[in-house]
Amino acid sequence: MQRGNPKASAGAPKPAHEPRALPRMKIVAIANQKGGVGKTTTAVNLGAALAESGKRILLVDLDPQANATSSFGLQGVEDVSLYDPLLGDASITEKILPTRREGLFIVPADLDMAGAEVEIARMPNHLTRLAETLKPLHTDQTFDFVFLDCPPSLGILMSNALAAADELLTPIQCEYFALEGLVKIVRLIQQVLDSGANERLELAGIVMTMFDARTNLSQQVVADVRKHFGERVYETVIPRSVRLSEAPSFGKSILEYASSGPAAQAYRALAREFMKRHVSPATVRELSHTPASENRET
What we know:
298 residues, Rossmann fold, seven-stranded mixed beta sheet, 14 helices
């Protein structure tokens, strides 16, 4: 995998006179303070599904465990994490790598990111370091969406992601304590708003993951979350899937690993629903055509 300029790798940028489908790049934090809920799985596969539909997506791996990075087979790549840009020693544009999926790019993570938390905490602008780091992306508008894959904690890196994001997308596992976790996330959003670090932040979407239609528990959890959070909860639910768990070990998204399976179909459906919430009706009609691969049976 070669490092490259995203504009060159994804095709030439559109002429200035040609209108873009989206008015501006949007930054989406994908976060949950609880681990094992499908956060990184959603960041990787929703990003891949949106790229498949023609959007330009940048995934920023903020987790020192680097699971999103390894999902693309990029583990072990040196000196390309967000560590130096966060400390002001490099530009984020120097750290962007292409993935195998056209239109999908990543800023990888490594263990140095754990040290970044300590160093950022000492800075006077410790809550807005990531927002400052992302500014060059607003300037060139190469990407339609930037996904921030956050670590499963309430530390500096997640706080920075919420301070930099336009909105929060939260994956929630279909389990008993789902609502309890959501309450904590709502409180965290309020803390960011109260701090003045980011007045535009909102909980814009909740994605139910690891759904098992055979169990009453999964169905009850989804019903309870919908009752409390209404339209913020996506209609699309992500099924529990062995293939979804296997795909990262092959360095592939589910769209590559099991393209016509139920998990891939679910993420394509999630991408279409995501776009309905973000673009005009005309663009939604363009996205409503299901890729041929989705209709194939295995």
